[in-house]
Amino acid sequence: MSEPGIIKKLSEEVVNRIAAGEIVQRPSNALKELIENSLDAKSTNIVITVKAGGLKYLQIQDNGTGIRCEDLEIVCERFTTSKLREYEDLKEICTYGFRGEALASISHIAHLTILTKTATAKCAYKASYENGKLKAPIKPCAGNNGTQITVEDLFYNVIARKKALRSPTEEYTHIMEVVGGYAIHNSHVGFTLKKFGENTDLKTPIKSSVIENVRIIHGNAIARELMEIELEEPLLKLSLRGCITNVNYSHKKGTMLLFINHRMVDSQSIRKAVDSIYSTYLPKNSHAFVYLSLELDPRNVDVNVHPTKHEVQFLYEEQIIEKIKSCIETKLLSCNSTRVMYTQA
Ligand code: ADP
Ligand code: MG
């Protein structure tokens, strides 16, 4: 007979590290949180620098509001936020963040340094964190308005995860996807992505447009076939805008960029619906480029399903998907008769 196990409470550090691993599964998840923080801070320019697919080094510099020096002591603790005060606020949340968990999580699984300056502060301040706490006293120093966050040696203390993420190239691809998606969706904000010490891989200008940014990121073959779509459904409290390729364009993999209330998310049901419409028009096993931005009544969207916030549940899904399908179908039909042939120059 085997003995029963002895039940013991896990240490706070272990609990926090496990929780952190749920939010941050790979460098691109951490970067998504950091980009959302920069956007919440009203930045107009965001520069991202990466080493080894973000596993060694991931830095994001913004020109947003900055963080007040007096908040630096607790900013990396769990559940500290400037965005949510009451549970009831969750219903109408319009910032990306609200849990106050991102910086805390990252500080439990990486070396995190913040350099920040608010517009009214005389100088910038620099602080380094470990397990949610300051590692050393906060240092005054020189710096621009805004915030620079540096994440080094991600998963240094989560050996299994580190082993699972063996390919910096693959991680960099995920990072490109996240930066590319946010750059297209936030075309008024300038985004720059580069590998440390190398040339810039991606750069969108400040106050650009969605189509211009698609051209920069995905190339002219897609951009020249784009059509804008728009839809307002007051009854469903739905508003949709986006860009989709016409029937001249098809690709074996295709691209689907989906934002719901400005959050980059994935939805199998929307993906399937869009594919089913295009399948009538495109060659077999080929797909379109589709960028959709849905705005739904925040009260009908549950962003609280999972800590990574990738999965978003919303009310009236079936009706909303039907509307999206007919909007795309109408647009494709209207252009099918004006098919253009490009000749090679
Ligand atoms: P949340 O975004 O859910 O509030 P985070 O852990 O991501 O939680 O961030 C904690 C707090 O740190 C934010 O509420 C915000 O006040 C501040 N913060 C984080 N990043 C930035 C930034 N880039 N610029 C200004 N403030 C920031
Ligand atoms: Mg956040």
UniProtKB/TrEMBL annotation:
Entry's localization field: Nucleus
Domain DNA mismatch repair protein S5 positions: 214-333
Organism domain of life: Eukaryota
Family in the record: Belongs to the DNA mismatch repair MutL/HexB family.
The name this protein goes by in its record: DNA mismatch repair protein Mlh1
Species of provenance: Trichoplusia ni (Cabbage looper)
Record gene name: LOC113495300
Segment of the intact protein contained: 1 to 345 of 711
